Amino acid sequence: MFTAVLSVVFSLYSPIGLGSLNAVQSMLIGILFLAILPTAPVLYYVVRRKIDINVSAREKRTKFYLLASASMLASVIIFWFSSAAIMFAYSLSVFIVTLIIAFINMKWKISAHSSSVSSDANALLYVYGTFLWPISIMIPIVSIVRYKAKAHSIAQLVAGIIVGITMTLISYIVFYP
């Protein structure tokens, strides 16, 4: 959900432009490849009653993370060739975070929700500045909700936060102008 919102925000309010794309094209590509396609397989299996909406069983999560990663990689490639630097950096960070979560998930359950919200908050702060620091309140809110729902342990939530913040920061330091 946050990826769709950030795709809109970065497309409409890019401080560095969108390369050969216009704002509508950038939004549609971001929403499709970073939000809709990554979640569609999960929703399909939920409707067919093969999994629960949270994909609680760690063993069943990896294939969904890898499918999501493939969609996100497509957006990375599209934004790279379009010279849409802001969306390239964002989609790259989302792709890297998701791929790392997929690999960690093979051995240990980690919170993708806390990782995602941490990554997105960090991306906003990096692009638009620290005056947006109040957005960071979403990190503990999402983490507390996931903990109270008994979806994750504190260690799984903290690990997700660390992956989200670290990988997004690296992506932006290296690839954002």
Describe this structure in words.
The protein has 177 residues and is mostly helical. It has one domain. The chain has 7 helices and no strands. It has helices at 2-12, 23-47, 58-81, 85-105, 112-128, 138-148, 154-175. Helix 1 packs antiparallel against helix 4, helix 2 (23-47) runs antiparallel to helix 3 (58-81) and helix 5 packs antiparallel against helix 6. The radius of gyration is 16 Å and the shape is globular. The model has no long low-confidence stretch (mean pLDDT 96).
Task: Furnish the topology, listing elements before pairings.
Blueprint: H1 2-12, H2 23-47, H3 58-81, H4 85-105, H5 112-128, H6 138-148, H7 154-175
Helix pairs in contact: 1-2, 1-4, 2-3, 3-4, 4-5, 4-7, 5-6, 5-7, 6-7
Largest sheet at a glance?
none
| Count of separate structural domains | 1
Could you state the order of secondary-structure elements as H and E? HHHHHHH
Beta fraction: under 5%
Q: What kind of assembly state do the chains in view correspond to?
A: single chain
Structural class: mainly alpha
Rg (CA only): 16 Å
State the end-to-end distance.
Answer: 26 Å
Helix content: over 70%
What is the number of E strands?
A: 0
Shape, principal axes of CA atoms = globular
Q: If you average the pLDDT, what whole number results? A: 96
Individual helix count: 7
What are the segments in which pLDDT stays under 50 over at least 5 consecutive residues?
none
